[in-house]
Amino acid sequence: MQKKIEQVKVLLDALPYIKKYTGEIFVIKYGGSAQIDPVLKDKVAQDILLMYLMGIKPVIVHGGGKKINELLEKLEIESQFINGLRVTSKETMEVVEMALSGNINKEITSLINQHGVKAIGISGKDANFITAKPIDIDKYGLVGDIISVDESVINNLLDEKFIPIIAPIAAAVDAKSHPGFNINADLAASKIAASLNARKIIFMTDTPGVMDKNKNFLSTLIEEEIIALKDEGTIAGGMIPKVDACIEAIDRGVPKAHIIDGRVEHALLLESFTSEGIGTVIKK
Amino acid sequence: MQKKIEQVKVLLDALPYIKKYTGEIFVIKYGGSAQIDPVLKDKVAQDILLMYLMGIKPVIVHGGGKKINELLEKLEIESQFINGLRVTSKETMEVVEMALSGNINKEITSLINQHGVKAIGISGKDANFITAKPIDIDKYGLVGDIISVDESVINNLLDEKFIPIIAPIAAAVDAKSHPGFNINADLAASKIAASLNARKIIFMTDTPGVMDKNKNFLSTLIEEEIIALKDEGTIAGGMIPKVDACIEAIDRGVPKAHIIDGRVEHALLLESFTSEGIGTVIKK
Amino acid sequence: MQKKIEQVKVLLDALPYIKKYTGEIFVIKYGGSAQIDPVLKDKVAQDILLMYLMGIKPVIVHGGGKKINELLEKLEIESQFINGLRVTSKETMEVVEMALSGNINKEITSLINQHGVKAIGISGKDANFITAKPIDIDKYGLVGDIISVDESVINNLLDEKFIPIIAPIAAAVDAKSHPGFNINADLAASKIAASLNARKIIFMTDTPGVMDKNKNFLSTLIEEEIIALKDEGTIAGGMIPKVDACIEAIDRGVPKAHIIDGRVEHALLLESFTSEGIGTVIKK
Amino acid sequence: MQKKIEQVKVLLDALPYIKKYTGEIFVIKYGGSAQIDPVLKDKVAQDILLMYLMGIKPVIVHGGGKKINELLEKLEIESQFINGLRVTSKETMEVVEMALSGNINKEITSLINQHGVKAIGISGKDANFITAKPIDIDKYGLVGDIISVDESVINNLLDEKFIPIIAPIAAAVDAKSHPGFNINADLAASKIAASLNARKIIFMTDTPGVMDKNKNFLSTLIEEEIIALKDEGTIAGGMIPKVDACIEAIDRGVPKAHIIDGRVEHALLLESFTSEGIGTVIKK
Amino acid sequence: MQKKIEQVKVLLDALPYIKKYTGEIFVIKYGGSAQIDPVLKDKVAQDILLMYLMGIKPVIVHGGGKKINELLEKLEIESQFINGLRVTSKETMEVVEMALSGNINKEITSLINQHGVKAIGISGKDANFITAKPIDIDKYGLVGDIISVDESVINNLLDEKFIPIIAPIAAAVDAKSHPGFNINADLAASKIAASLNARKIIFMTDTPGVMDKNKNFLSTLIEEEIIALKDEGTIAGGMIPKVDACIEAIDRGVPKAHIIDGRVEHALLLESFTSEGIGTVIKK
Amino acid sequence: MQKKIEQVKVLLDALPYIKKYTGEIFVIKYGGSAQIDPVLKDKVAQDILLMYLMGIKPVIVHGGGKKINELLEKLEIESQFINGLRVTSKETMEVVEMALSGNINKEITSLINQHGVKAIGISGKDANFITAKPIDIDKYGLVGDIISVDESVINNLLDEKFIPIIAPIAAAVDAKSHPGFNINADLAASKIAASLNARKIIFMTDTPGVMDKNKNFLSTLIEEEIIALKDEGTIAGGMIPKVDACIEAIDRGVPKAHIIDGRVEHALLLESFTSEGIGTVIKK
């Protein structure tokens, strides 16, 4: 009995969050271990379902580097990286798209649909809702820079109670000349969050969040602090694009950007429905 | 951290209930200690709020015998009971109505409003939504037998996101001749639940639920079992009107009627969102 | 036949008023003899019904000093007045609320419901729609000063075709510390009228309206004239709070405030649907 | 003052009618002196306006024999009658239509529009809403028998708050072969009333209503009585098509058909909003 | 087969026009031979139907000088012209209105209704949607100058999927003193187009369009060029009111005004759905 | 000029089809050369766009055998066929899905989006809208038999003005055990058409349609004739599944099923908007 009452208390502790977030859009950049480990995957699906039932409108953006590499390898297509960007030929682009739209995207969609909600998997090519132009066609090929996000498409889907699952591929403005673009998933998530006036953007990573130079975890940061941490080299490597995407989002009006540890079970709920959260929050 | 994960698991355990009950009406007969003890009162308000935020539409029906007695005493009006019914003169009726509509009803309304939702306190006289005729005007005076419940009035309020709090007073069909009727709160709750096609009716009592003759708690019962228990005298006293009200509700289409122990903190949530519940469930 | 044609002409004389007022809100401060005399009560109900059928949205605010006094006396609770305000202890407040919300409010609601419309009786505690703070807790106790009126609650009820009947009780902003407040009904009516952008506020009194110093009836007044009449002492006694409430209403945007003689049968219709009206009109 | 109270009582006497008729359609066959006398015309317009403001949806059908005759005469076109029907050549049809749609219809429309409502003048040719076939093309020419009434067209106009004014002209089903048909206005009104599920059809005539053989006025009649009166020859001449039209309407579901004296000022209101009315009512 | 493919290509050539014009209002001033020649009339009806089915909202304004003259002549009413305006007595006005509203307007309405759409014929008197004042009552009589166009009336009809056919007659603001006004159909069309935010206004004439002084056809003109052509006398006679009406329309916000040759079969479609069009386009 | 008039006549010839099909759903099974030849692809996109603009709601279902074979070959995965069905291992299924959902589906979506409409590419896994069970898991692996089509998902998308492009992949009812199913695109199209109450289903093939035994083209067939032709062996090979899918559709209520020659430019428009069409029509 005591245990049951404990359970109920937990439900009640979530009350203020439910009140605050009902009707709001959360953009979730899904990636890392949480996208690979079968147990974690299932937890993520449960978390998204609970968010949805509590009135939050989740919008999922995913990446998929590993699957792309795997498929390129099998097809014996070599892939070169310049400045961290994958040089994307037409042939590579086709593989990227098959891996993202044809494999990962549908896998996530299925995962969530198993719980009785209606997830729908799309890419920026659907209804041309993300358009891009090449960053440098000669150097990087079909790596794209986002020009526009048509939020009405996502809102149409949300209006019909769908949970959109978005693959980071963009349509070319001039679709005749380019078959589409490979875009950075973190930045895509930020731009989508901004265009939707999302309440939160949450990046699922394989790190506990942002650390200071003494490896102490930082739970809250403002833009200036981020810049200082980058300048002093504390934020480095793979964390740089994450914090840059966070800044992009908050600069364009998203109130809070979260970097959380996707390796922790139910990280999404822990961050959203408990008082301290588990990751780093970045705000204006 | 482990504790937080435990918390999240509790939230997830509630998922199937949230899915099942979202958009459904729960009629709650509020009474007993849960209506008197300040700590319990607060818990009830929290429970109702959580239900509301999870998409349930709670409708509260209350009684108020103690307050009526208290006020009658202060006013030195004597009250006689015949067959468990309070003989209700016009003078007594005025006191009954002041205690119910003017005191208890508004107190519950206030209690719930403190949590940022919009409760609205009414009686069957409002919009004439419950009408009654006298059971036996010469014997009992203004004790009424419900003729009709206009569920559209409650649905109008639910449509506007109000939580209705209902005092058990009915309007007379011929309002000129009678100022109103004192009606049984349990039966009123059952008839309201039936007319609203409620998913559940929950009676909050000061007992753990229904027991068999060996004082073993019975968690599930069907109508025939209830009748047998009444016949053998195991269900007796104050429990009789409760089970009768339960049968009234399920006979008229409410899938489940619950008799729960209002003395247990968060009894409403325990019954609604945990697998075993805490009280007796009665179904067809 | 001639008589019938006369009747029809009367209907036609009402045409311009019907055209002008359809869809508009009239706030009616109901009180005085019209609230006590059984014949007058019935006429008021008829008038409100006709207004309603002609497309006006009536909102009724009532007082109830006499009933409160009566009940306090019966309960042997003494009541002290300072500067015309009833010093209101918690015990007194409970009685005030029972008399207002539990007796008078439901009586008016019933009266109007007998004519086949849907009146609903509420107080400022319902959905917390009127909040107040103490004027001077030490001096007057629970006498409140209105802080806010949430007009959306009344509009929700009007949208569902209800006629709201409002008792002058307010919720405390900090509901934990105070059980509610006794507020002035005239001022409550004015603030409600202003928040609803009412077309008219009508005060039903036991006087023919405002008089000049020679006891000549004044049919139209502007704010400056009211002030002059108060300064010279012509407006005095119980008329002062009425004209103050009128000024409060017109200062906050209500086009016209009426002080009418509720002792005249059908005073509401006479004032609203005949060319000269019967009371004093106050405008900017 | 007494006079004013009398006025208000008249308004209140109309209450039950307003309650009963709000939202209902009244089809009015407008004709006779009420369509010619300038004073009566103005009264009719006022009556229709009042009906409209009280929530009734008036639909006006008019005739226009006099104007047609006048115009035919001026144009020196001879007109022959067989069995009371005007033999209608193409040339005559053009004149009939100009007189009805181009003159009388717009005159009535203007008359009503002067009071601030939106009347719209149409004929059965508009949106092809009345179609007809020739009764006997060789004998009567373009005299039509109504085949269908498309009530959706009138409902479309009522939905947009227009008052439809209808000239009795029908479109040919095969519009290529016939330019349109001259139809009987009384019958057109009946068929329109039936197709719209009108609450009432009112025929404005230049008689006090139906009389028995002793010239006693008959205020209420049922179908069988009408037939008996026709058989005995008491109903004769111009009254025959009126009562036939009444029977057509009530046979097809219109609850009441009225034959009233249009020469009486405000005959429409007298019939609709006073207890005895002024004409003959025919019902099933 | 080749022929069929040719046909399909034609459909596809119309695609960009369909995309551009769907949901837009086109005001068509219908007149000249296209209103008289039976073959042309039929083509116009087909063109309007196709426009309608392709999502354009056509609004037709017509004149009718010939019919008016014919009828005046038959009735032996002499008609005098001053400065190109018909001096309009009350007697003449009645004839004008019968010819326009009772004959031509219904004829066009019928013509279009034969194709299975719902055209509705009205004049400015309907719902008083065009009001006018006399230009010079002593000189011209009932020739009116448009004061206002109530576009909501036309939008109400368009909302109900009607095609409005409008006769150029206006109501008097003071309807008691004047029975209505004869207004210029070209100007009426321009003012209606402007008030409706029409995408196009198209004038159907009996000329190929505007010519320069060497009789070369001019396919596109801007306002300044029109003025120059008028100044040099190249635009003269009946073309002046047309170009003035065009300028009125584009000055008040209509993007394009077209003067087309109504003698060409399907001139409306040719102008609207082929790349070069057939007439003169005037724009800002 | 003559040519332009010819063009306009073509537009007008399409009128009856536009009237008939506006608001109706057409399911198009897209495949064969029309899906491969760049010129034909562009024509198909234009045809679909024109249908859409003319008020038809197109729903596209595609196959993709060639692309699947190509990708399997590159990945050196061998594929075995039993009774014309591809034995589908988990590994093969992944490739099938990448080719269909990740490549072909998005290519078609892009193709159509280039014309300014909003196509959205999904598979039966999205919102779980097509579920299937294995035909014979041991023999064929993940080849599925459709159990249900949730038409509400497609209707949701159509309501938001999307053109759905559907890949023939189904979700497993028990998603945990099977990653999805490879389903026959022709049958999927038929079942989708039936569940949507489509007006037409059109199969694009690389044949002119159905022939009799003398190789004469058959333009119209009923079910019994199809069966006879199958029995005599005239319908054979790849045509069998097409006609079976046609029969499935018409048996379940689709009025007409068309087998057309996708190698003909604009075959879709030719079939839908010209009087004789170009393929074989099958009806009840």
List keywords for this structure.
43% helix; homohexamer; 284 residues; alpha/beta; eight-stranded mixed beta sheet
Gist of the model:
Chain A is α/β, with parallel strands linked by helices.
CATH topology of chain A: Carbamate kinase
Q: Report the sheet with the most strands of chain A, covering strand number, pairing sense and barrel closure.
A: 8 strands, mixed
Amount of beta strand of chain A: 15-25%
> Any idea what the CATH superfamily of chain A is called?
Acetylglutamate kinase-like
CATH architecture label name of chain A? 3-Layer(aba) Sandwich
Oligomer: homohexamer
Share of helical residues of chain A: 40-55%
Distance between the termini of chain A: 45 Å
Largest interface: A-F, 41 and 41 residues
Structure commentary:
Six copies of one chain form a homohexamer. Chain A has eleven helices and 14 strands. Helices cover 43% and strands 23% of the residues of chain A. The model of chain A has no long low-confidence stretch (mean pLDDT 93). In chain A, helix 4 packs across helix 5 and helix 8 runs parallel beside helix 10. An eight-stranded mixed beta sheet of chain A has the order 5-8-2-1-11-13-14-12, sandwiched between helices. In chain A, strands 7-6-9-10 form a four-stranded mixed beta sheet. By secondary structure, chain A is α/β, with parallel strands linked by helices. Chain A has one domain (2-283): 3-Layer(aba) Sandwich (Carbamate kinase), CATH 3.40.1160.10. Chains in contact: A-B, A-F, B-C, C-D, D-E, E-F.
